[in-house]
Specification:
The complex is a heterodimer.
Chain A: E1 3-7, E2 10-12, E3 34-36, H1 38-52, E4 58-65, H2 70-79, E5 83-88, H3 95-109, E6 113-117, H4 128-136, E7 140-150, E8 153-160, E9 163-170, E10 173-177, H5 189-195, E11 200-204, H6 205-208, E12 216-222, E13 231-233, H7 236-245
Parallel strand pairs in A: 1-4, 1-6, 4-5, 5-11, 6-10, 7-10
Antiparallel strand pairs in A: 2-3, 7-8, 8-9
Helix pairs in contact in A: 2-5, 3-4
Chain B: E1 2-7, H1 17-27, E2 32-40, H2 44-51, E3 58-63, H3 72-82, E4 88-92, H4 95-108, E5 112-116, E6 118-121, E7 124-129, E8 134-140, E9 146-150, E10 165-168, E11 179-186, E12 199-203, H5 213-223, E13 226-229, H6 231-235, E14 256-260, H7 266-269, E15 277-282, H8 289-292, E16 295-298, H9 301-311
Parallel strand pairs in B: 1-2, 1-4, 2-3, 3-10, 4-9, 5-9, 12-13, 12-14, 14-15, 15-16
Antiparallel strand pairs in B: 6-7, 7-8
Classes of the chains: A alpha/beta, B alpha/beta.
């Protein structure tokens, strides 16, 4: 194995309480803290651990987004990626477009493995990895909680509703990762300094021959229905009483 | 008329209830003509169950040895072939459907609507983003096939009593050999699955130790509940990651969620906002969890939980 590509997305930090704009045109993003999508951090961590287990391979972090996405790619470089590529665009990118873009990068880079998070915590689409695998005509192993590389094959344990499932895929393959695969490392200050010197190339959808089509039109964005104010009870007996009246226990 | 194809989920013996929920969703599409496709090694038994779901016109059986296990790489090209003539192709928003449907969408070159929660028109739908903190209304191009996963928590199962026609289909599609099923292991506990349980008892950092989580397991077993934990409790090592409820863990929609010693960080609340009833037990009356709770009790969990266990159930 020589190369792993990791796709990361710049998203609103998971600790931010997202608010809908009063005019329904979207969510408020001005001045909000942005981070690497948490699942993509896990994807990168897994690639780095494979690299650190001794193989002489290159880890390339790639992303699509606005110019400031360089910040998230610098974080990826500080974590340990060898180089990064940003496909810069101001347009919103739907999963199918993202998959087409990553396909174009995969054809240039020829990675043995592509890691992604199982979903991004902004649009929660959970599509890009599967779409990329389809377009690349390669295997997909989604929701990975364990990855074992054995020569030109990978054995992947997947988190499915019924428990755990194991599949074997031939490389190259696309793997999307779930929460319990690993715990991403913290970035240390010297690594941040080192990351500034690592190569970060910027390209565009045009240069890759990808059309940024918008296939799903977002008509409006609304806050979810509010929960009604609840009641406070004084003791356990009262609590049990309320729950019994609601038919819950 | 809209021809709707639902990809049925089953384990070879039983039709997953998620399929019937997709039928309820499909019925909301104007003038829907509903078919269920079943892929498997032998789908005779599940086809009979699918044919009985009320509102289904046709059940399509695609029996093939390679279909014994639900591998997206194997199913997707067959679905893309079968999809000709259908306007809408739906799958459940379960691990089965979430894995499979985007691969189908990419093969067909069309977008997917994930977690469809309401139908507002044949090509207009509502879906949650930001873990349910916002709901978007999206419109798709009527000139293309529409792929969607149906958020099963948003729909009741369709009734039974239907008598759909059952047809066997042989598809002439070459299948890849690059993806192979090895085996499965179901959850190791006898407790209900956290993701689908109707009752969930969940603990936070206030539990103080992994040992003290036994209090919750004991209460959960008394009322037949699954056990969850906040990220703070997981990070502190009190509970394993698989128990984590929240934006970075599991997003759940039980009938009752009992939050014990959980302060209610935003990322936790986004994981439980679909719970029908939220009960909060916390020492701190100012804890944010009380803002979303339907029933709140300020008290020491080490006294409240054993007492609650004594007073509920037989």
């Amino acid at each position: 194995m020589q190369k792993i590509m990791v796709c990361i997305k710049r998203v609103v930090d998971y600790n931010v309480r997202v608010r809908v704009k009063p005019d329904g045109s979207g969510v408020m993003l001005d001045g909000v803290k942005m981070s690497v999508n948490p699942f993509d951090e896990i994807a990168l961590e897994e690639a780095l651990r494979i690299k650190e287990r001794g193989s002489n391979l290159e880890v390339v972090a790639v992303s699509i987004g606005v110019a400031d996405t360089q910040q998230q790619l610098r974080t990826a470089l500080a974590m340990g990626a060898d180089r990064a590529i940003l496909v810069q665009t101001d347009q919103p990118v739907e999963p199918l477009t993202a998959a087409q873009t990553f396909l174009a990068l995969a054809k240039k880079e020829n990675p043995d493995l592509i890691f992604l998070g199982k979903q991004a915590i902004d649009d929660d689409a959970n599509q890009t990895g599967q779409m990329l695998a389809a377009l690349w005509e390669r295997p997909q192993a989604t929701y990975a909680s364990k990855v074992a590389i054995e020569g030109s094959k990978a054995s992947v344990t997947r988190e499915v509703d019924a428990g755990l499932e194991t599949i074997e895929v031939d490389l190259p393959a696309v793997i999307t990762v779930d929460l319990r695969l690993n715990e991403p490392r913290y970035v240390k200050l010297p690594d941040i300094m080192k990351a500034k010197k690592k190569p970060l190339d910027v390209t565009s959808l045009d240069a890759l021959g990808v059309a940024a089509g918008q296939l799903l039109k977002v008509v409006k964005t609304e806050p979810p229905p509010q929960r009604q104010k609840g009641v406070m009870v004084k003791n356990v007996a009262e609590l049990v009483d309320v729950l019994k009246k609601k038919g819950l226990i | 008329m809209h021809k709707v194809l639902i990809i049925g989920e089953h384990d070879g013996k039983t039709l997953n209830p998620a399929t019937s929920k997709c039928v309820t969703c499909a019925k909301a599409i104007p003038e829907a003509d509903i078919s269920i496709a079943l892929f498997g090694a032998d789908t005779a038994g599940v086809a009979a169950q699918a044919a009985a779901v009320s509102g289904v016109k046709t059940v399509l059986r695609i029996d093939r040895a390679e279909n014994a296990h639900p591998l997206a790489a194997t199913f997707a090209p067959q679905i893309a072939d079968l999809a000709a003539g259908f306007t809408h192709i739906l799958g459940p928003s379960t691990s089965f459907g979430k894995d499979l449907m985007p691969r189908v969408a990419a093969l067909l070159g069309v977008p997917q609507v994930s977690d469809l929660m309401a139908v507002e028109g044949a090509y207009r739908f509502r879906r949650p983003i930001y873990a349910g903190n916002a709901i978007v209304t999206v419109e798709a191009d009527p000139g293309r096939q529409l792929i969607a996963t149906v958020r099963v928590a948003s729909y009741e199962a369709a009734g039974v009593g239907g008598s759909a026609a059952i047809e066997s289909r042989a598809l002439n599609v070459a299948l890849p050999s690059h993806t192979r099923y090895v085996g499965a292991k179901s959850g190791s506990t006898d407790r209900p699955d956290l993701q689908t349980a109707s009752r969930v008892v969940s603990g936070g950092r206030a539990l103080g130790s992994a040992e003290n989580f036994k209090l919750l397991f004991s209460l959960a077993d008394k009322i037949g509940a699954a056990v969850g934990a906040s990220r703070a409790a997981v990070d502190a090592g009190y509970a394993p990651n698989e128990m984590q409820v929240g934006q970075t863990g599991k997003i759940i929609s039980p009938e009752i969620y009992i939050a014990i010693g959980i302060s209610g960080a935003i990322q936790h609340l986004t994981g439980i906002k679909d719970a029908r009833t939220i009960v909060a037990i916390n020492k701190d009356g100012e804890a944010p969890i009380f803002e979303v709770a339907d029933v709140g009790l300020v008290g020491d969990l080490f006294q409240v939980v054993p007492e609650l266990e004594r007073l509920v159930g037989p």
